[in-house]
Amino acid sequence: MAGIGGSNYWEDLRKQARQLENELDLKLVSFSKLCTSYSSSRDGRRGDTSDTTPLLNNSTQDRMFDTMSVEIEQLLAKLTAVNDKMAEYTNAPGTTSINAALMHTLQRHRDILQDYTHEFHKTKGNFVAIREREDLLGSVRKDIESYKSGSGVNNRRTELFLKEHEHLRNIAMATKENMTSQRGMLKSIQSRVNTLANRFPTINNLIQRINLRKRRDSLILGAVIGVCTILLLLYAFH
C-alpha cells in the first residue's frame, strides 16, 4: 500500500478524513438544534385546537430526524472506512521509519471519530426520550379533556388537577429548557474542544470537568421529570 501512491496516498486519506469530520461537525450541530427545538415547538402547538396542523408539524420534524440520522450514520461509516485505510497504510512495508508519526495522526482521527459517534448516539437518544415524554404528557392532557367533555361538568377537583398539572409541567419544562440550553451550548463546542484536547493533553482536565457537569445536569433533569411524571400519574388515578 505504501508503494502505491506513497506519501500522496496518505495525504489524500488525511484530506478525506478532515473533510468528513467537518461535514459531521456541521451535521451534528444541526441535529442537536433539531432535538432542542422539538419540545419547544410541541409546547407552542398545545394551545392549537386544530387536528391537522400539529400532525403536519410533528410529521415534518420526525422526517427531518429520520433523514438527518441516516445522513450522519452514512458519514460515520465513510469516516470509519477512511480510518481503516489509514491503519492499513501504517502497517504496510516501507513505513517503519515514519510509523510513530503516522500512528499519532491516525490515533487523533480515531479519537475524533469516537467523539462524533458518541455525540450522535447521545443526541439521538435525547430526541427519542423527549418525543416519548411529550407524547405521554399529550396523552394525559387528552384524557383530561375527554373526561371534561364527556361529563359536561367542570367540577372543582378537575380544575384543581388541571392547575396542578400545568404548574408541574411548567416547572419541568422550565428546568428542561435551562438544561437543554446549557447542553446545546456545550455540544456545539464539544467536538472542537475534543479536537484541541487531542493536540494539547492539558485540556483534558477541562473536558473532564465539563463532562462531570453534563452528567450532573442530566441526573437533575431526569429526577425532576421522574417526580413530575409520578405526580401526574398519581393525580390521574387518584
Structural classification: mainly alpha
Give a count of the beta strands, DSSP E runs of length 2 or more.
0
Give the strand content: under 5%
- Count of helix runs: 5
Poorly predicted ranges: 49-56
- Residue-averaged pLDDT: 75
Largest sheet: none
SSE pattern: HHHHH
Radius of gyration: 24 Å
Shape: elongated
Helical fraction: over 70%
Q: Give the termini separation.
A: 71 Å
What does this structure look like?
With 238 residues, the protein is mainly α. Helices cover 88% and strands 0% of the residues. The chain contains five helices and no strands. The N and C termini lie far apart (71 Å). 15% of the residues are buried. The model is unreliable at 49-56 (pLDDT under 50).
In brief:
This protein has helices spanning 6-45, 53-90, 99-151, 156-199, 204-237. With 238 residues, it is mainly α.
Topology record:
Blueprint: H1 6-45, H2 53-90, H3 99-151, H4 156-199, H5 204-237
Subcellular location: Golgi apparatus membrane
Pfam families: V-SNARE_C (PF12352)
GO molecular function: SNAP receptor activity
Task: List the defining traits of the structure above.
elongated, mainly alpha, single chain, about 240 residues
